[in-house]
Amino acid sequence: MKLTMREIREKARERVKARCKVCPACNGVACAGEVPGMGGVGTGRSFQNNVSALLDHRLVMRVLHEADNPDCSFDLWGNKLSMPVLAAPIGSIPGNLSSDLTDERYTRCLTAGCRAVNTTASVGDIPNPDGLKSFLEWSKDYISLTIPFIKPWGVPEVISRLEMAAAAGVKMIGTDVDGAGLPTMRMMAAPVKVRTAPELAKIIKRSHELGMKFIVKGIMAADEATICADAGADGVIVSNHGGRVLDHTPGTAEALPPIVEAVGNRLMVLADGGIRTGADVLKMLALGAKAVLICRPLAIAVHGDEENGLATYFGQIRQELIEAMRLTGCANLAAINRKIINSRVR
Predict the structure, then answer these.
(1) Residues 185, 179 contacting (CB under 8 angstroms)
(2) What is d(CA 37, CA 39) in angstroms, rounded to the nearest whole number?
(3) Mean pLDDT in each 10-residue stretch from start to end of the chain (346 residues)?
(4) ω into residue 36 within 30 of 0, thus cis?
(5) pLDDT in tens, 155-187
(6) Secondary structure in 3-state letters for 2-49
(7) Which pLDDT score, from 0 to 100, does residue 187 have?
(8) CA-CA distance, 294 to 276, in Å (whole number)?
């Protein structure tokens, strides 16, 4: 019997209670400073700012139009997806949530759930390269639509992992450069580092030689987005790593528009951070993102009903997005623009 989202959340709460309260509003308040865990670093303001920045935008309702049956399908470099909503990576379920769900089971549920709704899955990366090898093995049945995100190790190690991914059949890959600030990496004495522009260009060049599109995740400034474009990146993800690396950053919805203005005509701009509903997705698209990624709610959905939980949550998001498009007069993704939102000035 199919579970409702309320039932999924209740079941998940029992499995993740050591590290996550599964709050009615996942806004970073109750879990501030809980890293490891699902909270934001320090005061938790970066996590909270992701949510509040989205709340600063209101949708303009329009009901006198012909867009009664919107099409929210999305083309990601030739892959036609059911919606512009992708699964974001998480490095280690046991490390972040201390649940009984193994990384293998989570990854298999994630890929199965993403396949069920026709969107991309993402897998994370850990210091031991055998960990990435395992993630790739667990994703092999959906590998062409699974995006591994490699931590900012030294360049030779990153290139070694690129080659491992290409050999496994990966077509799209990325690096979460903001992982250089993860407290969990410091706790493990993992050799992550900030990236220089020449290093990034070398990594991207090798990715393209291996036949893979390359995405840089963790960009919060227009000048850094320009560095990515100059280095040959195919896409960037506007992200502050869920507020888990640097306290007091802006919300991603605040950082997004200047980045779109700077590089939106040169590469694909995506965004994550605080997205919980289809209306949130629509706001990010109106602010210029081509697609969004979601992480924390997916982890909860999988803990509540494994691959069925993820498919249920993603199905709900898709229907909410379609209805929000319908009630703002957007027949398709190309019709979404800044005219459908009012932005509050603080």
Answers:
(1) yes
(2) 6
(3) 94 94 95 91 97 96 97 98 97 88 95 97 91 95 97 95 98 95 67 93 98 98 98 98 96 98 98 98 98 97 96 97 98 97 74
(4) yes
(5) 999 999 999 999 999 999 999 999 887 766 666
(6) CCCHHHHHHHHHHHHCCCCCCCCCCCCCCCCCCCCCCCCCCCCHHHHH
(7) 61
(8) 8
Distance CA 87, CA 146 (A): 9
Fold of 6-20+30-61+69-343: TIM Barrel (3.20.20)
Secondary structure in 3-state letters for the chain: CCCCHHHHHHHHHHHHCCCCCCCCCCCCCCCCCCCCCCCCCCCCHHHHHHHHHHHCEEECCCCCCCCCCCECCEEECCEEECCCEEECCCCCHHHHHCCCCCHHHHHHHHHHHHHHHCCCEEECCCCCHHHHHHHHHHCHHHHHHEEEEECCCCHHHHHHHHHHHHHCCCCEEEEEHHHHHCHHHHHCCCCCCCCCHHHHHHHHHHHHHCCCEEEEEEECCHHHHHHHHHCCCCEEEECCHHHCCCCCCCCHHHHHHHHHHHHCCCCEEEEECCCCCHHHHHHHHHCCCCEEEECHHHHHHHHHHHHHHHHHHHHHHHHHHHHHHHCCCCCEHHHCCHHHEEECCC
Alpha-carbon Rg for the chain in angstroms? 19
| Pairing status of strand 79-81 against strand 74-76 | antiparallel
pLDDT at position 127 is 86
Identify whether the C-beta of residue 205 lies closer than 8 Å to the C-beta of residue 162.
no
Q: Is the dihedral of CA 237, 146, 132, 105 positive or negative?
A: positive
Q: Quote the crossing angle between the two packed helices 155-167 and 197-209, to the nearest 10°.
A: 20
Q: CB neighbours of 14 closer than 8 A, spacing ≥ 6?
A: none
Q: Where are the domains of the chain?
A: 6-20+30-61+69-343
Residue for token pair 């960037």: 236
